[in-house]
Amino acid sequence: MPRIIQKILSPGLFTLSALLALSVTAASVRAESSYRVIVNSARGVSALSAADVSAYFLKTKTKWESGAKVLPVDLADDAKAREDFSEGILRRSVAAVKAYWQQQIFSGRALPPPELKDDAAVTAYVKANEGAIGYVSSSADVADVKVVEIKGK
Length: 153
Fold this sequence. Notes:
Oligomer: single chain
Order of helices and strands: HHEEHEEHHEHEE
């Protein structure tokens, strides 16, 4: 067996590689499960595509399938759930999303979703507005709203 292959297969390097692979997997699972997407309980959806959720939050799609207006709501920009949602669903950092909204405002196309201070405020907003969609941390109380499954993350 060539010497390079012996080094690659050495127990120490193999163990390090395995640990790195597990930590990357664990980080991915943690990021995906750190938030939940919620809608008003009257909304007749149980799952949405990641692409649709992104379009709702970036306001490139402004109506539900029923024709009702979509009312997205964001958490404050320092919330961990917002960071994970932005990167996981919008495929942008929070700073890049802020820059996107500055362009939208400057060009007169759209205003960003309201930013609310915490999970309780987002949940209350979604509960009070039939067209609302938001996200909260995975530990938030979501008894009064509907959690939707996100497909295609």
